[in-house]
Amino acid sequence: MDIIETCGLCKRYGNVLRVAHLDLDVPEGCIYGFLGPNGAGKSTTLKMLLGLVRPTAGSIHILGKEAESAGRLDILRQVGSLIESPSYYGHLTGEENLRIVQTLRNVPETNIREVLQIVRLDGQRNKKVAHYSLGMKQRLGLAAALLGFPKLLILDEPTNGLDPAGIQEMRELICSLPGQFGMTVVVSSHLLSEIDQMANVVGIIREGELVFQDTLEALHGRSRHHLALRTTNNAVAQSLLAQQDIHCTEEEGYLILPILSDEIAAHLTRSLAEHRLGVVRLEERQKSLEDIFLELTGKAASL
Amino acid sequence: MKLLGLEFFKCRRRKVVLVCATVLGTELAWFGAYLTRQDASDLVQGWMLLFYNLAMIDAIILPISVATLASRNCELEHKGATLKLLETMAPPGRLYLAKLSWGALVLAVLLTVRSVLFLAMGVAAEFDGAVPLGRSVMSTLLSWAVSMMIYALQQGLSLRFANQAAALVCGIFGSFIGIMSMLFPPALVRCVPWGYYGLMALARMEWDPDTRFTQFFWQWPQPLDLVLLALWAALFFIVGRTLFVRKEV
Fold first, then answer.
1. Can you give the three-state secondary structure of chain A, one letter per residue?
2. Which of the listed CATH numbers 1.20.950, 3.30.70, 3.40.1350, 3.30.310 matches domain A225-286?
């Protein structure tokens, strides 16, 4: 069952379609990595899921129910969220901040201590949030999202502004949520490496359009191997390869070939030598995940 | 009620009591200083003098005070970007109403304490005649009603603009125009929201240029002015609420 399902979701600002005909399918129990360059429309999409931004067109189903305005809050009772930066009252303590969420969510008071322990803030609960570091505020934001132990957690760039240790800690915490509490997590990021380490299902958005949506394995499957050949005369070599029914293309001074068996590769080099062509380089290459991301988004990947 | 309770919880350590104490202190000091300059003949009409001055002091002090209170309550939502969290748990219209109710209660307490202190001051100054308790209750209610109309405007501004300078400048402008409007003809005062402090005053003043004598007299507010006050309040509430509910966070 898909815990989130959108159909033709659009958001227009002025004349610009920031989110265009998005069909998201988030399976239950997964960590869904929502990936895209800055300004691709990730936050707008997540805000539409939470009803904070009104869609221009399309429909949203969360937990099998249509998330229209009347019943929106009933559905959102089972959804925790952390959008962009953490929300907090700086003049109140961490515990007081969570008490506000606990009252509004109508969940037991004991949940406050529990989530503070999960995010490892129980030692700082009586400190004013204004005196927290950014990492602590981010963890408090996650604690607020976890407070009702929701079925679905929507996290928008949760590692923004964290130091490497904080990123690692947050990542481990997010990865543990489906197993520990049976939650489905939607986590957005512009960092490919981050999604690669957390998600098992990936959606890639580019200029408001969903350009890829499948499992992480399927994304990795696109990173196929190939051979790169460089000879003393690539043009003659290319015609020779064509005669032997080996399709190739030229890229940056290399002939790009499909993977060949050892026998055919040996025969090929012998044949090139017979035609007085020197083999300068013959390399086995693999297209990296970054290359695929670049291809899909058409932008430089943030790594 | 839950949301209203949370508004009070959220305003912990926001020095709201200090703001109210400053308002009370300023109003009392103002009237106290005025009383020290009056001789025995001026104090014959002491109670009317008190109510007239109360309206004048309200017109100067309350617009900026109401703007400050609304700002203290609304600014915290902008500072911590909390609306995007709150609106996933409560409808924005109810959040808006809870904030307005918070303002209504704070102003009710503030103005009640203010009226009690002013009455005590009148008793201490031994004004002639019985203590006008009924008029005092009415005056408190009218001050509260005008303040709530201004509060609806200020809350709308404070929630609309993250930078509270816009709302506070409006409050300062209100204080200025509030006292100036007491010199305007009534038809013009009705067009100035802050002018209703003067328009609703229970004691009025008449100055005779021949005798150079000031005469105070009691006057109940005109029904038309009460209707207009309600219309102004409804306008500010509806516009402010609509803008807040429609705003995407």
1. CEEEEEEEEEEEECCEEEEEEECCEEECCCEEEEECCCCCCHHHHHHHHCCCCCCCEEEEEECCEECCCCCHHHHHCCEEEECCCCCCCCCCEHHHHHHHHHHHHCCCCHHHHHHHHHCCCHHHCCCEHHHCCHHHHHHHHHHHHHCCCCCEEEEECCCCCCCHHHHHHHHHHHHHHHHHHCCEEEEEECEHHHHHHHCCEEEEEECCEEEEEEEHHHHHHCCCEEEEEEECCHHHHHHHHHHCCCCCEEECCEEEECCCCHHHHHHHHHHHHHCCCCEEEEEEEECCHHHHHHHHHCCCCEC
2. 3.30.70
Residue among B2, B83, B85 minimizing CB distance to A103: B2
Residue B6 phi/psi, 5° resolution?
-65, -30
ipTM of the shown complex: 0.90
Domain boundaries A2-221, CATH class: alpha beta
- Closest C-alpha among A42, A81, A83 to residue A210: A42
* Nearest CA among A269, A231, A229 for reference residue A249: A229
Residues A77-88 have a mean pLDDT of 94
pLDDT-above-90 percentage for chain A: 71
Look over chain A and give the mean of its residue pLDDT values, rounded to a whole number.
91
CB contact under 8 A, B88 and A47: no
The answer to whether B82 touches A87, Cβ cutoff 8 Å, is: yes
Quick: pLDDT tens for B67-91: 999 999 999 999 999 999 999 999 9
Cβ A99–B9 below 8 Å, yes or no? Answer: yes
Residue count of chain A: 303
Residues in A touching B14 (Cβ below 8 Å): 91
Domain with CATH 3.40.50.300 in chain A: 2-221
| Residue A111 pLDDT greater than 70, yes or no | yes
What are the residue ranges spanned by the domains of chain B? 2-246
Average pLDDT over residues A249-263: 89
Tell me the pTM.
0.87
Cα dihedral across residues B199, B202, B205, B206: positive or negative: positive
Q: Is A79 on the interface with B (CB under 8 A)?
A: yes
Nearest in space to A89 (alpha carbons), one of A121, A137, A123? A137
Any residues with CB less than 8 A from the CB of A287 and at least 6 apart, and which? A222, A223, A224, A226
What is d(CA A142, CA B82) in angstroms, rounded to the nearest whole number? Answer: 14
For residue A299, what pLDDT is reported?
Answer: 57
Which residue's structure tokens are 């090139």?
Answer: A272
Q: Which of A79, A84, A91 to mutate to test the interface with B (most CBs of B within 10 A)?
A: A91
pLDDT in tens, A200-245: 999 999 999 999 999 999 888 877 788 999 999 999 999 999 988 8
End-to-end CA distance of chain A: 33
The dihedral over CA atoms of A126, A173, A51, A29, expressed in degrees to the nearest 10, equals: -140
